[in-house]
Amino acid sequence: MKRLTTLIAGLILGGLVLAAGLEGQVPDLLYLPFNEGSGSSTADGALPGLGLAPTLVGQAGWDATPMLGASALLMPAGVTSGDQVQTNQPFALSGSWTLEFWFRNDDAASTTRYILGDASAGSFRCYKSGASPASVILAGTGVSSLTLTAAAPLGQWVHVAFVYDDLGLELNGYVDGVFAGMKKQAANLAFSGTAASGLLIGGYSTSSRMIGGLDELRLYSWARSADEIDRERSLELSGQVADLGIVALQAPVDSTGCDPLGAAESIVMLVRNVGSSTLAAGTPIVASYAIDGAAPVVETFTLPGAVALSDTLPLTFALGGDLSAAGPHTIVLGCATGGDLNGVNDVLTASVRSGGDLTIASFPWLENFDASAAINTTQPPPGWKQDQNDASGTDSDWYFRSGATASANTGPTSDYSSGAGFYAYVEDSTGNFAQVNLITPCLDLGPLAHPRLQFALHSMNGSTSGPTVNENFLSVDLIVYPGGLVTADALGPIGDLGASWSLQALDLAAFAGQTIQLVFRGRSDGGSFTHDIAIDDVGVFEGQVSIGQAPRAGLAVFDLNGALSPNQGPVASGDQGPYQALATAGGPFLLGFEGEPGQPILLLFGAANPRAATYPGGIGQFDIGGAVDAFGIPLGLQVVADGFRPWHLLWAIFNTGPSGSLALSFSAPPLPPGPHGALQAVLGTSQPFAVALSNSVEMTFF
After folding, report:
1. Distance (Å, rounded) from C-alpha 680 to C-alpha 590?
2. Fewer CB within 10 Å: N-end or C-end of the chain?
């Protein structure tokens, strides 16, 4: 390829037109373009460089078919241990650095062959693997080696770059300008050689020399960006008196969760002096940015102090940019200074995302997971996401499945609503994780006066030793915006519920007008494999506001025939009542009570009358009966069962027992169809006022 000629282009920065040439950053440590084509030495074009001209030894020669320029280095077939290019200066390398070169592999054999290295400098070396297709590998003492797979195809010029960033301890690799791998390093890399021959090009110690071509070898004392590597890999370089290049958009960065960026975000551009001389204090710099194709904002900066070669400088624009609209934004940066003819690095296009997650603002909203494309995929629905910071390894994400879970009697056999759709679940077989999190889209609750969450939960522990052995739990956490404040256990933790789906609900009224995300936090660390956690039909909608007593977990809860709240939530939802229950004459009459262990129960009957009487001290309110008598008790109440009085017929039965619960089943009385009043329980407690009122349940026969 012939040497690239200079191309002059117009760079318009708010009316300022600058000449732009296709020239790139000149390395400061080593730059070997191998353009001589004859002789036994080659010029080092680096500024300032290592100090001495490298020499060609033995069969190291010239390649008339280079990648760039007039010629390249050729290491022919038959090279031996003495054939190489010597840089003639003891080699040392520390801090951040970038190594780049064009390489053509002419060795068809499956043999490891060394491209460069210095055995005296911590065995620093780069080589072609013996595999087929061949890879390029960077290694050394203390180096977590980085392999660029299949980067050395036979007979083809390939651009290879290794970038070490000492701040992040990351060694990154690029092939033909494309990211190809990263290895995290255990400690900062530093190499210090003693050999007078210095870094050997085309070989390493006495090991097998490379066979093929090498061109445009460059070594920088800083970590170059991916953009810089890609746009300059096909350019021959020449020194510039002044060359100020854009390295990156330093601010803003992508916003996370549901927090959008602002309407006046600070725009910070990082530039680097990549010329051949120091930029003096007082040097003017014309810089610009343009957002999403809008007119550029142009500002002039004056360097407050000298900027040495390879040093960076952040430039903060006085006028902020409007990035408040949700979604990705394109920002085009530009800069120029007097005498800078290298236009390649004077423009940079960056992308920034504002409000990273999908926002739902139309309700009711329902996700039933039925759009999943494959059974047991971990790909969530649009806008949902698996938490990347909760756990890692097998079964560390939620699965989306149709039909039964893999192990019988550990999870649902089908989805909640149709029996043929999908649901989401945490697999308990392999994982042992305290949290496996599934996160909803952003939910803008602004349109809802009384927002409410409802979902179906399947939480069955199939352990043969009992439901509390190897038990797992589900919690619902909230992330509240702006700010991303987490409210843990807004609902739950909920353990074993038996072998069927159950509705769960959460009143979100406290978060009305705010934007939230729901986090379904499942656990799989209970032990064994017996307890999968599953959810389905997740919905958020406008809830109905009731004025009755709510069930009071751990204190006073009453259920009859699976009673539902006005929001169609089950007793466990905690909604205010009165709850509604259906029954048929002679049909099942299933009563359930929950409270503190070993407490008596008084079951009362009367007309439904929300807020008939309210009592202080945490006792609660009566939602049955009529007018209040002189003692503050509603009239018209009938005692159905009394566990407080030993002489009552059912006193021995009506107590919560050691488990804190009581379940009774018998035939419903022969009542005609229609509403027949409501039941409400009074439960004993260890609290100062001795009793607590449960929710009420209104009976309707049909």
Report:
1. 14
2. C
Chain mean position to CA 452: 27
Classify 446 as helix, strand or coil: coil
Cα separation, 31 vs 305, whole angstroms = 29
Average pLDDT, the chain: 90
Token pair 């000629």: residue: 5
What residue has token string 């499945």?
401
Q: How far apart are CA 679 and CA 602, in angstroms?
A: 10
For the chain, percent of residues with pLDDT exceeding 90: 72
Whether the Cβ atoms of residue 51 and residue 89 lie closer than 8 Å to each other: yes
Separation CA 237–CA 348 (nearest Å) = 19
Task: Find out whether the peptide bond into 570 is cis, omega within 30 degrees of 0.
Answer: no
- Which residue shows structure tokens 């006028």? 319
Concatenated DSSP letters of 275-334 = SSSPBPTT-EEEEEEEETTPPPEEEEEE-SS-B-TT-EEEEE-SS-B---SSEEEEEEEE
Nearest to 22 by CA among 34, 36, 11: 11
How many whole angstroms separate alpha carbon 556 and alpha carbon 548? 14
Contact 342, 243 (CB under 8 A): yes
What residues have CB less than 8 Å from 366, skipping those under 6 apart? 537, 538, 539
DSSP-assigned states of every residue in 139-158? E-TT---EEEEEEE-BT-EE
Work out the angle at residue 211's Cα, subtended by the Cα atoms of residues 208 and 217, and round it to the nearest 5 degrees: 100
pLDDT tens by residue, 21-36: 334 678 889 999 999 9
Distance, CA of 292 to CA of 106 (rounded, Å): 47
**Phi/psi at 346 (nearest 5 deg)?**
-95, 0
Q: Is 347 helix (H, G, I), strand (E, B) or coil?
A: strand
* Closest by CA position to 225, among listed 161, 287, 288: 161
**Token pair of 157, please?**
């010029």
Strands 365-367, 533-542: pairing kind: antiparallel
pLDDT at site 241: 58
Query: What whole-number distance in Å separates Cα of residue 436 and Cα of residue 526?
Result: 13
Q: Tokens for 59, please give them.
A: 């069969």
Contacts of residue 264, defined as CB under 8 A and 6 or more positions apart, other chains included, come to 320, 321, 322
Backbone angles phi, psi at 244, to 5 degrees: -105, 115
Nearest to 104 by CA among 37, 229, 202, 31: 202
Q: What percent of the chain has pLDDT over 70?
A: 96
Q: How far is CA 39 from CA 56, 59, 302, 485, in A?
A: 8, 12, 47, 69
One-character DSSP codes across 367-425: E--TT-SSTTB--PPTT-EE-TTS--STT-S-EEEES--SSTTSS-SS-SSSSSSEEEE
Q: Please tell me whether residue 509 adopts helix, strand or coil conformation.
A: helix
Q: Is the pTM of this model over 0.70?
A: no
| Residue that is written with structure tokens 């939960």 in the block | 457
| Apex 507 CA angle, 502 and 510, nearest 5 | 160
Distance CA 90, CA 112 (A): 25
Please give the Cα distance from 629 to 95 (Å, whole number): 86
Q: What is the chain's alpha carbon radius of gyration, rounded to the nearest angstrom?
A: 37
Eight-state DSSP code of residue 481: E
Q: Output b/e per residue, 104-119; b: 16+ Cβ within 10 A.
A: bbbbeeeeebbbbbbb
